Amino acid sequence: MNHEQPTLAVSSCLLGMNVRYDGNSKQHSFISSVLNKHFDLFPVCPEVAIGMGVPRPPIQLRIIGNEIHAIRIDDHDVDVTTSLQAYARQLVTHVRTFCGYIFKSRSPSCGISDTEIFSDHGISAGPGIYAREIIHALPYLPAIDEIQLDQAEAKDNFLERVFSLERWHQLGTSPTTLNHLADFHTTHHLTLAAHGNEAYVALSETISNLREPLSHDAINDYLKQFHDCLKTPLTHRGHVRMLTNLQKFLAPIISRDEKERLYTAITDYRGNPGKLVMPLKHIKQLADHYNLYGLARQAYINPTPAEMALRYSEQ
Questions:
Q1: For residue 115, which phi and psi values (nearest 5 degrees)?
Q2: What is the SS3 assignment for 119?
């Protein structure tokens, strides 16, 4: 495994592994052929991990009493709920260091929202047993399933959050101090403002109320609030608004030729959503040239090569 790349946990069947109950896979080409170039992909199949075997009798979610249980379809006396929950709790420490998780939709163990839940009163939908535990323990962890990954807006939003969490992990500080937290927050000012300036203000107030030493709960609460702010997809219109604001900010500082080049780059992006890289590069170059340190350090105008390839290219 290449530890220079961020890591995503992925349901094993989506990577082409024959681990499903019927002995087959559900390989997803974008994951196995594109994401694997930019991430280390960590395969997880909780049902295999708890010893259910391949192939195996399928399970389903059913409400028994007031609780949701994972039971075998052909034998309701076989209940693997606690085993799946225990495995999730065991894996949380490992997944905590990852940057995101791609789950298998509709799975009684790995579905994140659309797994069928049976009861005497009908059928509803919700998360699988294992996925529910992971998401509850790590509420800030970017999570998506393969169906959502096929939706351009959802995919971009997931990747934005993934790369933001990777920047958090790159702080590499133990323990995390208030200064480190504030520095991360300031670096993401434009990112948060692009989603809505009220998010930046609210999180700034959260930080102002913190005191050293920071507890794990305080850090996790900040990360959850940060990623909750980013969960609203950033649209083409939102990018245009942010770029226009930056253009106005730079106008009194830069030369006439630089204004024209920046205007052209933003206009091109306005007409073609696949051309975001150019105005971002222009703004970064101008910020560096004019020693605008507060702007130059912003994550919004400093996408990594992987982020540019996956979020800002026309592919």
A1: -75, 135
A2: strand
Query: Tens digits of per-residue pLDDT, 16-36?
Result: 999 999 999 999 999 999 999
Query: pLDDT tens digit string along 59-90?
Result: 999 999 889 999 999 999 999 999 999 999 99
In this structure, the number of other CB atoms found within 10 A of the CB of residue 80 comes to 22
Q: What is the separation of C-alpha 203 from the centre of its chain, rounded to a whole number of angstroms?
A: 19
Distance CA 12, CA 289 (A): 47
Q: Please report where in the chains the tokens 């998360």 appear, as a residue.
A: 127
Q: Give the strand pairing for 40-44 and 67-72.
A: unpaired
Residues paired with 40 in a beta bridge: 7
Which of 158, 212, 131, 205 has the alpha carbon at shortest distance from 30?
158
Q: Are 310 and 38 in contact (CB under 8 A)?
A: yes
- The angle subtended at Cα 298 by Cα 294 and Cα 300, nearest 5°, is 150
Confidence (pTM): 0.93
Cβ–Cβ < 8 Å for 119, 63: yes
Phi, psi angles (nearest 5°) of residue 8:
-115, 135
Segments making up each domain of the chain, as ranges: 7-149, 152-230, 236-311
102, 10 in Cβ contact below 8 A?
A: yes
The DSSP secondary-structure symbol of 232 reads: S
Q: Which residues pair with 64 in a beta bridge?
A: 67
Burial 127-152 (b: 16+ CB within 10 A, else e): bbbbbbbbbebbebbbbbbbebbeee
For residue 103, the surrounding DSSP H or E stretch is: strand 100-103
Neighbours of 192 (CB within 10 A): 23
